[in-house]
Structures are given as structure tokens and as C-alpha cells.
Amino acid sequence: MNIFRLLGDMCHLVAIIILFLKIWRSKSCAGISGKSQVLFALVFTTRYLDLFTSFISVYNTVMKVVFLVLAYATVYLIYLRFRSTYNSESDSFRVEFLLVPVAGLSFLENYAFAPLEILWTFSIYLESVAILPQLFMITKTGEAESITTHYLFFLGLYRALYLANWVWRYHTEGFFDQIAVVSGVVQTIFYCDFFYLYFTKVLRGSGKMTLP
Amino acid sequence: CHRRKVKDEL
């Protein structure tokens, strides 16, 4: 464990908690892409299948359970509890355009042609594009509540910190996870446009982010 | 080569 990965995991946890509390307290999921949240729940499900088969550390197990519970709880809030506030017409990204290529690639480019490995690879590739429906929804509606932008900021920052973690681990352990690193770079690049808007718009106190 | 899966990350 290194400081970059610990900070990254904390940013990830903060992002997920920010979103969950925003929906829970405002009793509304307006402006939130349910599709992205379903994709994240799928990412955690396919990645954490080893939860019961291999014990790494208490921290690892606890965080996996927390991420899974919060991911499914958020999907529950969006599609069941507060479904009347869900903007399904704005959440129109065709997720099959993500799932099919990601599934195909996970069969082609993986470390081992075994079910758990293919599913883990699928989760890595899927995570790099899972935020696209949310980013697409914001460009479609032309705006995002400031709390949603804070959620996206921490979510984008978490994988950027993981990139630093992988540089550090390569420097100290002499190896790197090519699939995770390439996907992590792609994932972080998708946030660059958002980061620019976040720093120029939201942090200047203009509250809501309105796209030009 | 130096590429293999990291197993201890979330």
C-alpha cells in the first residue's frame, strides 16, 4: 500500500458517498445517469468475485463490501426508491455500444483465458468507460448541479491517483499491470474535459456548472 | 515482460 493508492481509494469512497447522500437527502436523482451507476455496480460485481475465495487484507475485504453495498444501494435509489425523479429521457446513452466492445476485448486481451480473469479484465475495461453515460447526460442537459460535479471530481481524481500509484509500484516493485494502466489512462483522459470545466467554472464559485 | 495483474488493488 502506498499513499497514492490510499488517497485514491479514499477519493473513490468519498465520491460514492457524496452521490449516495445527495440522492438520499434530496430524495431525487435528477441529473444523475442511472446507466452509469448500473455499469459501476457491474464493475464491482465482476471485479470482486474473489471476495470469498482469496483474502488479501481486512482493508481490502471491507472496502470491497462497502463499494458493492453502496453501488447497489445507489442503483436501488435511482431505479426503485426515487424512480419518479429519474430523467430516463436524458439518460439516453446506448450502453450496448460500451458493453459489446468491452466484453469482446476482455476475451481478446487478458492475462489468462479463465472465467475469473476474463471477468476481472471485463471489469477493468468497463470501468474506463462506465462514466460516459453520465458525462453524455451532462452535455445533453447542458448543466450539472455542483454536488454532481464534486462527485465527478473525486471519481476522476481516484483513478488519476491510481496512475501515480502504478508509477510508484513500477519504481519500487519493477513491474506494472499493463491492462489496468492502459485502461486507467483512458479512463482519466475522459475526465480531462470535465476537470477543465470544474476548475474554471465550479471552483470559481459559479455553483452550477453550465456548459458553453 | 513486466506485465502482470496486481491482485491486491481494489
Report on the structure:
The complex is a heterodimer of chains A (212) and B (10). Chain A has helices at residues 3-26, 34-47, 58-81, 96-108, 115-129, 132-141, 146-173, 178-206, and strands spanning 143-144, 209-210. By secondary structure, chain A is mostly helical. Chain B is low in regular secondary structure and 10 residues long. Chain B has no helix or strand. The chains are: A mainly alpha (212), B little secondary structure (10). Chains A and B meet through helix 1, helix 3, helix 7 and helix 8 of A and loops of B.
Strand pairing plus helix content of chain B: what structural class?
A: little secondary structure
Number of alpha- plus pi-helical segments of chain A: 8
Amount of beta strand of chain B = under 5%
Largest interface: A-B, 25 and 9 residues
* Rg of chain A (C-alpha, Å): 17 Å
Distance between the termini of chain B: 23 Å
> How many strand segments of chain A?
2
Largest beta sheet: strand ordering of chain A: 1-2
Low-confidence sequence ranges of chain A: none
Which oligomeric form is depicted? heterodimer
Break the fold down into its secondary structure elements and pairings:
The complex is a heterodimer of chains A (212) and B (10).
Chain A: H1 3-26, H2 34-47, H3 58-81, H4 96-108, H5 115-129, H6 132-141, E1 143-144, H7 146-173, H8 178-206, E2 209-210
Antiparallel strand pairs in A: 1-2
Helix pairs in contact in A: 1-3, 1-7, 2-3, 2-5, 4-5, 5-8, 7-8
Chain B: no helix or strand
Keywords:
heterodimer; A: 212 residues; mainly alpha; 8 helices; 2 strands; 2% strand; globular; B: 10 residues; little secondary structure; 0% strand
Structure at a glance:
The complex is a heterodimer of chains A (212) and B (10). By secondary structure, chain A is mostly helical.
